[in-house]
Every structure is written in structure tokens, then in C-alpha cells.
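Running this now, will post back.
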Amino acid sequence: MPGEGRERALLIDRCWSLYLLLTEHFSVPSNFHEKFPALVERATISGLLHLTLHISDQHWPYIREEYEMAGHQLRIAGYSYTLIGPSSNPLFRADLLPHHRTDYRKRSLTAFPHHLHDPNGRILSFSGEISDFIDIVQQHLAKPDPKT
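Update: finished.
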């Protein structure tokens, strides 16, 4: 993605909107604040944002978004939102790859191709919105640990 004018401004705005969303909902390490501007700069050059955010000793979201321009609007051409858990296992993963048309109950996905893989390996409908993914992460983290 060219880093020119309006395109660059829209991409920078998206990145900083993600920053605000993440820092609003999670306690982030101080080095996240220091490293984020470099992530934004890389995104303006490549059209791709990658970030990992340690939100606890055992959990961290991995966020990947690929951008393209559609007319005068920034479009998320691809994404993967993953919550990594203990032993580096993915717990939840949302993406828009069109390889699933139904959920685990064989019902059509409500926002195909957006879907969510849960910790039990089931496919669930998903909106495609990162704010909804953050809500899922927060709900998961709020549950008591069954091992304690």
C-alpha cells in the first residue's frame, strides 16, 4: 500500500484506534507504548499491522490486519485475531478465510466469511469486528480457572 496522503492518514487513524481500544480494555506493558509508533510506521509502508500484546503471564492477543484502499476508504482486506494462552496454545482465533460456511451446529455463519475458532475446536459465527474479539477475550479472562 502506498504511504501517500489520504491513504496514509486513514491507515494511521486505524492503527491508533486499535491502540486506544487495546489500552482501554487491557493493562498493557509500558514498552507497548514505546514500540507502537514503530508498528504504525511499518504498517504505513507495508499495509500490514502485526502486534502481540502481553496482557498477563499466560495470555496475549496476536493481531494481524492487512489493509487496502477501496475508493477513498480504508478496507481491512484480511485479518487474524488470536488469543494465545498457556503453553503458547491458541485459545480463540477469528479470521475471514472463506473455508467455513457453517458453524459447529451446521448453521450458516451469520457474517460469512467471518468466523471464530473456540478452544474446543468449534467454529462459531463472528462479526469480524475487533471490538467483539476483545469482548470475547475479556469474557474468557474473567472466568475462574477450573484448575484452582
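Residues 67 and 76 are 5 Å apart (CA to CA). More later if anyone needs it.
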